[in-house]
Amino acid sequence: MSDPIIDLHSDDYFMGEALRQAAKAYEREEVPVGAVIVREGKIIARAFNQVELLKDATAHAEMLALTQAENAVGDWRLTDCTLYVTKEPCPMCAGAIVHTRLARVVFGAGDPKGGAAGGALNLLQFPTLNHRCEITSGVRLEECRELLRSFFAEQRAVKKNSEEK
Question: What is d(CA 3, CA 7) in angstroms, rounded to the nearest whole number?
Answer without folding.
Answer: 12
